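Re: that backbone. C-alpha cells:
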C-alpha cells in the first residue's frame, strides 16, 4: 500500500510539471492589404511576440479598412466582426472603445503635409500663416478626428464619405489640399498612379494627434497583450527599429524636408486627458527629422 501511494505521488509530480497549453487569442481583422495596413500588422505581431498567448489571426473579408468610415469601424468592433482598429484618437472615440495609449507613429500623424494636384503649387507659395491657410479648402474623411480639430481652428473643411474617394475629389478640384500625416503621402501617391498627385513644397501643419490601436472595452486580454508588448518593444528598442526601418517612415524622412518647411501649429482641444504627452520616448520631435 505504501508503495502504491509513492507511485501515485510520483505520477502526480510528473503531471504537475508538464507544460500547460498556451491560452488562445483570436484576432479578427479586415484584410491587411495597403502599406499602412501592413505596417500595423507588423506592429501587432511585434507586440504579441512578447506574449505567451497562442495568437490566431482570422480574416473578415467583408470589407477593407479603407472602405469604412470611423463610425462603421467602431460598429464592426462593437459587433465582434473585428477585434482591432487604429485611428487618430479623440475624446469621443476613447469613450466608445478602449485605447492602447502608445503612439504607433510616434506622433507623425499630427505632422501634416498637404497632398495637392501638381499644377496647384502656386496657390500655396504665398501661404505663410494660419490665417492665409484658412483660404484653402482642406479635404477630410467623414468621422475623422481631424475634422473637428481643423474646424475648431477655423479651416474650411470639405468632407468625403470614404478615404478612397478623397483622391478623386482632390483631382476634380472639390477641395485644394488633403492634409496627410508625414508618413502617409508617399505611399498614397504610389497607390494612385492614375491620379496626378504631389506633396506641397513649403508647409507643415502641426497638431498633437497620436495614432492608437483600439479594441472593444470588453477585450481586456487583447488590450493587455498589446499594451505590455508595445511597452516591452519600446524598452528594448525593437519598436524604434521597426518604426525607423519601415518603408513609410524611411520614405517620409528621405523626402519630407520637414525641418526646412514653414511650420504652422494649431491646438487640439479634443485631445483626451490620458494622452501620454510627457513620455518623451513615445514621440518624435520635428527638430529630430
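Recovered sequence:
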Amino acid at each position: 500500500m505504501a508503495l502504491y501511494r509513492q507511485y501515485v505521488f510520483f505520477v502526480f509530480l510528473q503531471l504537475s510539471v508538464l507544460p500547460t497549453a498556451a491560452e488562445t487569442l483570436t484576432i479578427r481583422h479586415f484584410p491587411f492589404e495597403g502599406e499602412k495596413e501592413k505596417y500595423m500588422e507588423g506592429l501587432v505581431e511585434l507586440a504579441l511576440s512578447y506574449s505567451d498567448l497562442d495568437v490566431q489571426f482570422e480574416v473578415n473579408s467583408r470589407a477593407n479598412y479603407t472602405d469604412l468610415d470611423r463610425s462603421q469601424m467602431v460598429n464592426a468592433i462593437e459587433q465582434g466582426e473585428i477585434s482591432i482598429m487604429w485611428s487618430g484618437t479623440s475624446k469621443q472615440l476613447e469613450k466608445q472603445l478602449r485605447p492602447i495609449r502608445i503612439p504607433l507613429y510616434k506622433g507623425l500623424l499630427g505632422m501634416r503635409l498637404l497632398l495637392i494636384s501638381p499644377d496647384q503649387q502656386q496657390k500655396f507659395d504665398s501661404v505663410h500663416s494660419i490665417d492665409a491657410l484658412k483660404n484653402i479648402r482642406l479635404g477630410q474623411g467623414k468621422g475623422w478626428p481631424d475634422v473637428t480639430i481643423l474646424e475648431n481652428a477655423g479651416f474650411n473643411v470639405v468632407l468625403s464619405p470614404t478615404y478612397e474617394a478623397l483622391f478623386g475629389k482632390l483631382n476634380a478640384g472639390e477641395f485644394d489640399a488633403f492634409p496627410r500625416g508625414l508618413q502617409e503621402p508617399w505611399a498614397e501617391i504610389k497607390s494612385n498612379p492614375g491620379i496626378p498627385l504631389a506633396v506641397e513644397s513649403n508647409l507643415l501643419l502641426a497638431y498633437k494627434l497620436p495614432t492608437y490601436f483600439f479594441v472593444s472595452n470588453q477585450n481586456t486580454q487583447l488590450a493587455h497583450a498589446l499594451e505590455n508588448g508595445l511597452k516591452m518593444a519600446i524598452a528594448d528598442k525593437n519598436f524604434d527599429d521597426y518604426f525607423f526601418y519601415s518603408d513609410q517612415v524611411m520614405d517620409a524622412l528621405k523626402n519630407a524636408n520637414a525641418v526646412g518647411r514653414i511650420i504652422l501649429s494649431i491646438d487640439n482641444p479634443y485631445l483626451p486627458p490620458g494622452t501620454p504627452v510627457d513620455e518623451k520616448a513615445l514621440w518624435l520631435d520635428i527638430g529630430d527629422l
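The mean pLDDT is 89. The first helix runs from residue 2 to 16.
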